[in-house]
Write a structure and sequence with these properties.
346 residues; alpha/beta; three-stranded antiparallel sheet; 12 helices
């Protein structure tokens, strides 16, 4: 068979619709929860990627977000609190061809699961980590979480939280995530496109989704979702473009020494003075700087902060295994069990 014929007879990519990815389970989130939008856009995004359902896996920990695997007509695991990245790492190493999504929340991923999350990111395992951030513990009925703002009043902080909140993207960038993005539950087009880009990335993709908890923290992101004010509070990142925002597109961000500074265009300040976004920069310092910009002092950035390519953990590990087998043979598990526990120091 010629190369041309072989190409022509290649198995076609699967054609899916969002309905194909919906399971038969009743979706049990509170009415008005932002999770519904994330689920809908996930099904919409994955249906366009040509990935077979049997190659998709959703792995979650504990929390409202962690019901997600039940609602996807794919393979999935509902694991224990905070440990989803651990199981996902093992599965990716054993089955590199799988497309694996880790679904977590600000409590599950950043509190009990923080250590596991950091190490999955720094290893650059080819996982897509979707962190639902509603700045509250929803499943356990409204305690403050690692991302809750100072002063947040909850059942566990009736006088107001005094904890300094974690910023998920700063943590991910500090751990050298190769793809980092932020999106919002109600911005369905932006959310869908962000999920598509994350799925296409080879390596750890970390996506924070601002997600409204209607019951216990309603409106915490209203500054970023209200049509009347969001243009002045959000800055949409575009690679190679200046950092411009505002309802009239007349505001921007420039560097003043090592610090970001909000400026108004005009009176001697032009677009050329503004910081240019570079998501492909190997050095993550500017991406980290953008992740530290917090409302109300700054507009908060949404979009892709960083997208770089590095060898993945599973590729490097499996190459080590192949090299050992090539040099020493395949070996037998029985021989390992029967061998002495002996080291030789030379």
């Amino acid at each position: 068979m010629s190369a041309a014929t072989a190409t022509a007879t290649t198995t076609p990519l699967p054609t899916l619709t969002p309905k194909d990815l919906a399971s038969d389970q009743e979706v049990r989130w509170c009415p008005g929860c932002g999770d519904y939008s994330i689920l809908a856009q996930m099904k919409k995004a994955l249906a366009t990627l040509g990935i077979a359902r049997e190659k998709m896996v959703f792995i979650s920990g504990i929390g409202c977000s962690s019901r997600f695997p039940y609602y996807m007509n794919t393979y999935g695991f509902h694991t224990i609190h905070g440990r989803a990245p651990t199981l996902a790492t093992g599965l990716k190493v054993a089955n590199p061809e799988l497309s694996i999504w880790v679904i977590t929340g600000d409590g599950d991923g950043l509190s009990i699961g923080g250590n596991h999350l950091i190490h999955a990111i720094r290893r650059n395992v080819d996982l897509k980590i979707l962190l639902f951030n509603n700045e509250i513990y929803g499943l356990t009925k409204g305690q403050y979480s690692p991302t809750s703002r100072v002063g947040t009043r909850t059942k566990s902080s009736p006088q107001g939280s005094i904890d300094n909140p974690l910023r998920p993207l700063s943590l991910a960038i500090g751990a050298e995530a190769t793809f980092v993005a932020r999106t919002i539950d109600v911005d369905i087009n932006h959310l869908t496109e962000t999920l598509r880009r994350a799925s296409a990335h080879k390596g750890t993709a970390f996506i924070e989704v601002y997600q409204n908890c209607k019951i216990f923290n309603d409106g915490v992101f209203e500054y970023a979702t209200d049509k009347g004010v969001k243009a002045d509070n959000l800055l949409f990142l575009e690679h190679g473009k200046p950092l411009i925002f505002g309802k009239d597109r007349n505001k921007g961000v420039r560097l003043h020494g090592l610090d970001p500074e909000v400026v108004s265009l005009g009176s001697g300040i032009t677009v050329d003075d503004l910081l240019i976004h570079d998501e492909k920069a190997e050095e993550p310092s500017l991406a980290y700087l953008l992740s530290r910009m917090v409302h109300p002092r700054f507009p908060e950035c949404v979009g892709v902060f960083r997208a770089v390519q590095r060898p993945t953990y599973e590729d490097l590990l499996n190459k080590q295994i192949e090299d050992i087998r090539r040099n020493r043979g395949a070996g037998k598990l029985e021989d390992l069990f029967a061998s002495d526990d002996v080291w030789v120091v030379e």
